[in-house]
Amino acid sequence: MAEIAGENLGSSESAASQAPKIGLSSVPTASGPGSTSLVRKATGPRTPQGKERSKHNAITHGTFSKAVVLKGESQNDFDALLRALYQDRQPEGALEEILVNKLAVLWWRLRRVWTAEGAEIRAGAEFIQWDANERGRQDAATLPQLDCNGGLIRWIANPEALQGCLSLLEDLKESLGEGFDPEFDKAILTKLYGSYAEWDREKNWQKTLFDSYLVWLSTSLCSEEERKEKGYASPQKCKENFLEDLNEEIQRLERYRKEHAKIWASKLELESLRRTVPEGPQADRLFRYEAALSREIDRTLNQLERTQRMRLGQPVPPPINLNITASKE
User: Fold this and answer.
1) Is the pTM of this model over 0.70?
2) How many angstroms separate the most distant Cα atoms in the chain?
3) Quick check: 135 and 238 in contact, CB under 8 A?
4) Disulfide-capable partner of 91 in 7, 34, 96, 254 (CB 3.0 to 4.6 Å)?
5) Rounded to whole angstroms, what are the CA distances from 139 to 132, 136, 143?
6) Cβ-contact 223, 241 below 8 angstroms
7) Cα-flanking dihedrals φ and ψ of residue 26, to 5°?
8) Which DSSP string corresponds to 45-74?
9) Are strands 24-28 and 38-40 parallel, antiparallel or unpaired?
10) How confident is residue 322, by pLDDT bands cut at 50, 70 and 90?
11) Rounded distance, CA 272 to CA 122, Å?
């Protein structure tokens, strides 16, 4: 019986050694010396669901994903794009997977171009008002000497100059509360309308507030005898008459400011619409890059389609290569 048992044991060991070792290892586990437990080798996913999940491991573990996504861009968005392309193209084999990854990279770069184009448009369209205000301030800072160039009133098309005129008129109005102050008043009026010499009067065909001031100032300084003789207004009445002219000038400039603001708003709106199409060297660079990416996407799609047709045994049309050269002649 012992011999038979030995023979049976020997034959069992011999059969075990000759049996195919599929997914099993003869290495004992650490459960103890002489243990007969066997460790299962990793054989990869076996179910269809597991195989489907592992098929797209390159999406999150491949070098494409890490190389193309820049700081500040969304890794999740790129992974979603890559997953969508895998589901749409259903690549099999290394070459097809590389081509699908390349497509994802190209589309991601094209998306980046569109983002840059949008930023270029926004930079040109959304800051028009700010740029206009800055130019106005710079122009106002470089105005010529006012007392010999017609004064600040000549530059009221500049919003900064217009506001300066209104501020000076308000200062003048406030100072008149105590009556005429020729030294102070003439200094303000000179800033507004330029110098006013006696020999300039005939050259100035258009009367200004400075003319009105000189008339009423001169009348207020007349003697009482001359005032009664010629029927001139009293000094108080002279001041009131000039204040009326001063208020009319302030109202005129306020009306001009409203009209100017309305027209300027319309111009800014049209300019903003015009700048929705970027221009200049930066725009040309973006358009060239976008065109190059579009051509490369078409080539990659064509190559992927031909590769998949070959794998499926479908007829593959002959490639069409068209080279265009520009001649200066």
Assistant:
1) no
2) 164
3) no
4) 96
5) 10, 5, 6
6) no
7) -90, 5
8) --SHHHHHHHTTHHHHHSHHHHHHPPTTS-
9) antiparallel
10) low
11) 9
Alpha-carbon separation of residue 211 from 56, 237, 329 (angstroms): 87, 17, 71
| Residue 150 structure tokens | 């017609």
88, pLDDT greater than 90: yes
**Phi and psi for 52 in degrees, rounded to 5?**
-65, -40
The two structure tokens encoding residue 235: 């000094």
- Residue 28: beta bridge partners? 38
Identify the bridge partners of residue 38 per DSSP, sorted by sequence position. Answer: 28
C-alpha distances (whole Å) from 327 to each of 73, 123, 292, 323 are 42, 38, 21, 13
Q: Mind listing the pLDDT tens digit for each residue in 190-221?
A: 989 888 664 455 555 568 899 999 999 999 99
Q: Which of the 8 DSSP states describes residue 326? A: -
Question: Taking residues 134-162, what's their average pLDDT?
Answer: 73
**β-pair partners for 24:** 40
Q: Give yes or no for residue 10 having a pLDDT over 60.
A: no
Is 81:73 a contact under the CB 8 Å cutoff? no
Scored b (16 or more CB within 10 A) or e, 194-208 reads bebeeeeeeeeeeeb
Read off the pLDDT of residues 239-297 as tens digits, 9 standing for 90 and up. 999 999 999 999 999 999 999 889 888 888 888 777 777 778 888 899 999 999 999 99
* Confidence at residue 323, expressed as pLDDT on a 0 to 100 scale: 64
DSSP H helix total and E strand total for the chain? 13, 2
